[in-house]
Write a structure and sequence with these properties.
By secondary structure, the chain is of the alpha/beta class. It has 17 helices and 11 strands.
Length: 372
């Protein structure tokens, strides 16, 4: 018997996630005791001292270096888990101190969704390709009952994930928030609010809220991820997808989201090896297909993502975007979760008008430097 902790409380044994797990139970010859808890990541850290740990856990990609530093995870060289076929930019999230921990069970990233009918009605032929164009198009699409653009700026990881697109798009970085790029990103977000092209409610919207606003016709364009495709199709709303523009053109660098399966460092070599066998089964592209299709996640191998794009035309643009997407935790490793809180405070304070972009960036920079 092996134990697994995950946060997918919405998925039972009859879901694609449940079938992925049961298929690997049968293939590896184990019985899985699964515990689902939305706050399991915090529980995992708290359980380290007591030794009350599972054999396997699902980790959000940006939390892996923090877990590895805490000694919670067994590295792949130790366990024998082979992630060598997975894309290098995806695996970068799981590298700490020169060692790789776990393997991706599917990933996602962000792009610009837009309603082509609404652009056509406004006389706009093509989606924007620079920030100036994005601001202009958002203004043209803004009416009494809709805003031109929506994104998540809530004070949690949804908001931080989406802020990376603006921070990197302006040439900034998590380690240089108060540089020109960071200040420009915050300034640009405030300009969109001041234009009336973005609702002040974005400070309360998670990524699903943004999608719901788009489906309700309240937002004409949105920054959102691959996992929204199935719901948009189900709703029957018009949409198209384009790379989110960089400040002066080209594609903005976008962050990688998604989860990894991790073998927990229990100190029991035999259990760790068996847990690695189970994890290996989970990350085989064939095993992952149904789960990835249900989530509209991307399979983290070059061959896997190419096959997905060929069989599902919706994913062609995402395959292109994903090839150059970045790990949001790569710069700061285990310090990223704490730095994310500083970023959240920065963009929230600017968008709510309680701090200037310069002051918010300086405060975030000082906080980030203090934790490094």
């Amino acid at each position: 018997e092996l134990s697994l902790w995950d946060g997918f409380t919405q998925y039972d044994e009859n879901s694609p996630w449940g079938r992925l797990l049961s298929g690997c139970e049968e293939q590896v010859g184990v019985t899985l005791e699964r515990t689902t808890d939305a706050t399991y990541a915090n529980t995992l850290l708290q359980s380290a001292a007591s030794g009350n740990l599972p054999d396997l856990a699902i980790a959000e990609n940006s939390s892996i270096p923090q877990f590895a530093k805490a000694g919670l995870l067994a590295d792949n060289e130790t366990t024998g888990l082979d992630a060598s076929e997975q894309m290098e930019n995806v695996l970068a999230s799981a590298v700490y101190d020169g060692k790789t921990y776990g393997a991706s069970v599917g990933f996602n990233t962000l792009a610009l969704y837009y309603n082509p009918d609404k652009l056509a009605e406004a006389g706009i032929e093509n989606p924007p390709t620079t920030w100036d164009e994005l601001r202009e198009v958002a203004a043209k699409l803004t009416t009494d009952d809709q805003t031109g653009l929506g994104f998540s700026s809530i004070a949690n990881e949804d908001g931080a994930f989406q802020f990376m697109v603006f921070l990197w798009g302006a040439g900034g970085s998590v380690t240089d928030v108060d540089g020109d790029g960071g200040v420009e990103a915050l300034t640009y977000l405030k300009q969109l609010i001041d234009d009336g092209s973005v609702s002040t409610d974005v400070v309360n919207w998670n990524q699903q809220d943004v999608r719901d606003q788009y489906m309700a016709g309240n937002v004409a364009m949105m920054l959102n991820g691959t996992w929204q495709l199935n719901e948009l199709d189900k709703a029957g709303v018009p949409y198209a997808v384009a790379p989110f523009p960089g400040k002066d053109g080209g594609n903005a660098e976008v962050p990688l989201g998604g989860e990894f399966i991790e073998v927990i460092a229990t100190g029991n070599d035999a259990r760790q090896k068996k847990a690695a066998e189970f994890a290996q089964c989970m990350v085989e592209p064939d095993s992952m297909k149904e789960w990835a299709a249900g989530q509209t996640y991307l399979i983290p191998t070059e061959a896997g993502i190419a096959e997905q794009a060929e069989s599902d035309p919706r994913l062609e643009i995402w395959a292109e975007i994903a090839s150059s997407a970045r790990s949001k935790a790569a710069e700061l490793g285990p310090d990223y979760p704490q730095a994310s809180l500083s970023l959240q405070t920065a963009f929230q304070s600017v968008l709510t008008g309680t701090a200037s972009p310069e002051d918010a960036a300086a405060k975030a920079q000082a906080e980030i430097e203090s934790i490094q």
